């Protein structure tokens, strides 16, 4: 019986590594036995704070240089991490564009194309809504009932006219309700940011707009860049263009 109690006492006295307390003496003993510790772990030196023995306000030239170098290293590390994060985001966007293009290839109808665009763009880009507006009539009269065909009757609102410039680029808009209302309607008042992309056909003339909206004002920012948006607009434009009737130059369309 006594033996069992002793075993129980031993079990209760055991501690996990997380529970073990390392005191200063233990650390000092370890460093004395391992003089090359800081050589093999030089990054730790960057985290050490050793005040000058003559006082906190006294600092040598070498210490000042070390502080400057530490700051530079820290800034470079932050910049590197930011670049890596942007690279990961760009790789993800590239994969999503590739997947979208594959899904759009060989679709049997324009209705199916629009359905895929709405579903995939909303899901892949964590957007709250996706809207497409086509300025011209479809080749197939049955497609005219689709909501994507604009009811502007050839009248282009002033707020989006700059996007129809042949040399214009896609833009990110933040808290600009007037532009987003043209695509998203009343729900645009709840949006904080969005992307607006002109849709071009093989003849490089603009025949519509693609908009992606989000309630998050930081979701679509100017730092996103226009390369990704341009590629997305080109893919969508080339897929939809064959379903559109002969387009005229948007400069011939009346501005509101």
Topology:
Blueprint (H helix, E strand, L loop, with lengths): L1 H12 L10 H10 L3 H4 L20 H44 L5 H15 L4 E6 L20 E2 L14 E4 L2 H8 L8 E8 L5 E9 L11 H15 L13 E2 L1
Parallel strand pairs: 2-6
Antiparallel strand pairs: 1-5, 3-4, 4-5
Helix pairs in contact: 4-5, 4-7
Jot down its keywords.
single chain, two-stranded parallel sheet, disordered C terminus, 256 residues, 2 domains, 12% strand, elongated, alpha+beta, 7 helices, Beta-Lactamase, four-stranded antiparallel beta sheet
What does this structure look like?
- The chain is an alpha+beta fold.
- The chain folds into 2 domains: 38-105; 109-255, 2-Layer Sandwich (Beta-Lactamase).
- It has 7 helices and 6 strands; from the N terminus they run αααααβββαββαβ.
- The strands form 2 sheets. The protein has a 4-stranded antiparallel sheet with strand order 1-5-4-3, sandwiched between helices. The chain has a two-stranded parallel sheet with strand order 2-6.
- A hairpin with a 5-residue loop joins strand 4 (193-200) and strand 5.
- Helix 4 (61-104) runs parallel beside helix 7 (226-240).
- The longest helix is centred in the N-terminal third of the chain and has 44 residues, at 61-104.
- The model is unreliable at 1-13, 15-19 and 249-256 (pLDDT under 50).
Concise account of the structure shown:
The protein is an alpha+beta fold. The protein has seven helices and six strands; from the N terminus they run H-H-H-H-H-E-E-E-H-E-E-H-E. Keywords: Coiled coil.
């Amino acid at each position: 019986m006594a033996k069992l109690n002793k075993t129980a006492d031993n079990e209760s006295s055991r501690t996990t590594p997380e529970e073990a307390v390392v005191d200063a003496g233990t650390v000092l003993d370890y460093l004395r036995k391992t003089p090359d510790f800081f050589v093999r772990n030089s990054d730790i030196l960057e985290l050490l704070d050793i005040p000058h023995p003559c006082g906190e306000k006294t600092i040598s030239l070498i210490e000042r240089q070390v502080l400057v170098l530490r700051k530079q290293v820290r800034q470079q590390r932050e910049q590197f991490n930011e670049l890596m994060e942007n690279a990961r985001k760009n790789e993800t966007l590239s994969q999503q564009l590739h997947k979208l293009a594959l899904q759009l290839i060989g679709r049997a109808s324009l209705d199916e194309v629009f359905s895929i665009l709405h579903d995939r763009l909303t899901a892949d880009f964590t957007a709250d809504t996706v809207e497409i507006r086509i300025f011209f009539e479809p080749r197939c009269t049955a497609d005219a009932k689709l909501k994507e065909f604009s009811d502007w009757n050839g009248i282009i609102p002033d707020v989006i006219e700059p996007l129809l410039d042949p040399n214009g680029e896609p833009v990110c808009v933040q808290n600009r309700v007037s532009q987003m209302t043209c695509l998203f309607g009343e729900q645009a008042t709840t949006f904080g940011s969005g992307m607006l992309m002109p849709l071009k056909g093989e003849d490089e003339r603009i025949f519509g707009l693609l908009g992606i909206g989000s309630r998050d004002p930081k979701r679509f920012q100017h730092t996103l860049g226009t390369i990704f948006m341009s590629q997305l607009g080109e893919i969508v434009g080339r897929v939809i263009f064959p379903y559109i009737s002969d387009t005229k130059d948007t400069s011939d369309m009346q501005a509101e």
